[in-house]
Structure formats: C-alpha cells, structure tokens
Amino acid sequence: MNQITQSTMPLRVKALVCLYILLTLIALWRMTTFYAFDLLTLGVLPLLFGILTRAAWTKVVLFVYLGLQTIGLAAMSTTAIIAYQITPEDVNLVFQGYNIPLIPLWLILVSLIGFQWWVGVSKVMTQYLSPKNR
Fold first, then answer.
1. CA neighbor of 118 nearest in space, from 12, 8, 9
2. Residue 6 confidence (pLDDT) above 60
3. Disulfide-capable partner of 55 in 35, 43, 50, 66 (CB 3.0 to 4.6 Å)?
C-alpha cells in the first residue's frame, strides 16, 4: 500500500474523533459556564490529542478513560435504582427546567460507551495507532 492509504484515518476512528470533539466542546462549555473541572469531562482532551497525533500512549489513556466512564455509569445507575426503590417520586433528572427521562438517557449513554469500547478494542484502532503505519 502507498503512504497516502496507510496514513488515512479509518471511518470508526473518525467517528470516535467526532464524538470526542463534541465531548470537548461540551467540556469547555461546562467548564466556562459552571466552573466545573472533573476527569470525565476534561479527560477527553489528552485522549483526543493522542488519537490525532497517533501517540504511543493513546491506547492506555483510552482504556483508562473508558474504564472511568463505565464505572461512573454503573455507579450512577446503581444509585438511581436504589433511590427509585426507596422513593420513586423523587428520582428525576431536571436540567435547566427540562425533565429528562432516565431510561432513554441511560440507553444513549450505554450506546455511547459501548461504541467507544467497540472502536477502542478493534483491530482497526490498533493498526491506526501502530508505529509502522505512521
């Protein structure tokens, strides 16, 4: 294969980069609006940089970031289920006056985390980040 074909970013990785750009914009908005600094929102910055520069440490950071997301979602889901068993009328999520339904939100979050894991463990990502393809 020629150098141009090897250096192009696969479609899965492009979709992941687009997701991380969106998450970066949300993190910056959240940081400037609410003055909130945390690992789940700002952790996407080094990951995005690593994917774009094809750094050797990117795969490790990706797995750490996905592990944190997975643990966070599991913890919040468990807390919501326990709280719903105690007082169902108090379990609701309101953001800027809008009541957000929990089941569709949970399905979206599980889909997003599942997509990231799918791309992260794929052979395509490993080949894209391998030193011989740079």
1. 12
2. no
3. 50
